[in-house]
């Protein structure tokens, strides 16, 4: 049996939904939908970043997720101008890698969100990267 799946969202679990939501709203310019105090969604044309409180973890199974412990995933946003995003950051944002053109043709800015998750803001800048991401 063949299954087709469509990635709909990535959810981050946090102890502070308001703080994390505010960070991503400032970074992306997207206003989050807040159906409850324990949950937020930043919807973009290609996918959604969901932010859930640790209080919601029990709904999935006690201990199934732990806030502020991600060291494997990178949340990525395609932006128009990486350098403009960098210029708009305040001093509280940890910049891991300043704007850099990568060997695969993307200009990238890597930062950490308040819970330590890596976030890559990128834009394709070479003809190959533009064609690949069209």
Give the SSE layout:
Layout: E1 9-14, H1 17-28, E2 33-36, E3 39-43, E4 48-53, H2 57-60, E5 74-78, H3 82-87, E6 94-101, E7 106-112, E8 118-124, H4 127-132
Name the beta content range. Answer: 35-45%
- Let me know the average pLDDT: 94
Number of helices: 4
Count of discrete domains? 2
Shape: globular
Biggest sheet details: 4 strands, mixed
Radius of gyration: 16 Å
- Please bin the fraction of helical residues: 10-25%
> What is the third-level CATH name, the topology of the largest domain?
2,3-Dihydroxybiphenyl 1,2-Dioxygenase, domain 1
CATH second-level architecture of the largest domain: Roll
Taking pLDDT < 50 over at least 5 consecutive residues as the criterion, the unreliable ranges are: none
How would you describe this protein?
By secondary structure, the chain is an alpha/beta fold. The mean pLDDT is 94. It is globular, with a radius of gyration of 16 Å. It has 2 domains: 1-60, Signal recognition particle alu RNA binding heterodimer, srp9/1, CATH 3.30.720; 71-134, 2,3-Dihydroxybiphenyl 1,2-Dioxygenase, domain 1. A hairpin with a 4-residue loop joins strand 6 and strand 7. The chain starts with 8 loop residues before the first strand and ends with a helix. The strands form 2 sheets. Strands 1-4-3-2 form a 4-stranded mixed β-sheet, covered by helices on one side. Strands 5-8-7-6 form a 4-stranded mixed β-sheet. The chain has helices at residues 17-28, 57-60, 82-87, 127-132, and strands at residues 9-14, 33-36, 39-43, 48-53, 74-78, 94-101, 106-112, 118-124. Helix content is 21%, strand content 36%. It contains 4 helices and 8 strands.
